[in-house]
Amino acid sequence: MALPENEHSKEQEGPVIRDNRRIDPETGEPRVPEGTAEESSPDSEAAAAEPTEAQAPAENDAELERLRQEVAERTDDLKRLQAEYVNYRRRVDRDRAAVREQALAQVLTELLPVLDDIGRARAHNELVGGFKSVGEALESLVSRMGLKKYGEKGDEFDPTVHEALTMVPSADVTVPTIVEVFQPGYLMGERVVRPARVVVAGPTEEDAGASTEEAATEEAPAASEPTGTSDTSDRSDEDEKTAGDE
């Protein structure tokens, strides 16, 4: 009995052995089982690469934006730090100048009695010889340090820088005026180191009253003078009265 052609071919082929090992025993490389994966084509590789290439610019833009934000924050921090440093330097310089001025004023205040003695000696013609040289050198030194003498006879009295020991009336002045200086004053810049002690002459009460009346007269309105209309009416009344008497 003859076997069918298919069965005969199977008997000739024998059992089929398939190697399903994932790693090639000869090369040691992984291998893909037959029928489970299709061969990759250039089109499939391009399609797989397109999402990656499109995603890369977006990630780069986000990273660039983050870096820009960090740079802006660091720049603002540096600006704030610089402004604080400038303010600190200004405060230090101002405090240093104030301390220097205070210390200098204290030293010059201690020298004022010596300057007064030099002034009295000059007034009595006793500033001669070596004492004159020393006195003038000291006055020049304190002048260079910013000390300024003030308070002279004939100056207008200023209560902010002058100390009035007494005040006498005088008909020769119209405003309070210094007539005698007991002790000169000294300034250092705008600061009064010592006020000038003076005698002040002020205007008398009659002069003050006259000045007030003159000011009131000058400020009086011109409308208080009689007008031409009132003069005409008065003249008409006088003419009528004269005619009645006749």
UniProtKB/TrEMBL annotation:
Residues 1-32 have a biased composition (Basic and acidic residues). SUPFAM superfamilies: Coiled-coil domain of nucleotide exchange factor GrpE, Head domain of nucleotide exchange factor GrpE. It is found in: Cytoplasm. Residues 64-98 form a coiled coil. Signal peptide: none annotated. Keywords: Chaperone, Coiled coil, Cytoplasm, Stress response. Its main location: cytoplasm. HAMAP family: GrpE. Belongs to the GrpE family. Participates actively in the response to hyperosmotic and heat shock by preventing the aggregation of stress-denatured proteins, in association with DnaK and GrpE. It is the nucleotide exchange factor for DnaK and may function as a thermosensor. Unfolded proteins bind initially to DnaJ; upon interaction with the DnaJ-bound protein, DnaK hydrolyzes its bound ATP, resulting in the formation of a stable complex. GrpE releases ADP from DnaK; ATP binding to DnaK triggers the release of the substrate protein, thus completing the reaction cycle. Homodimer. This is Protein GrpE. It comes from Thermobifida alba.
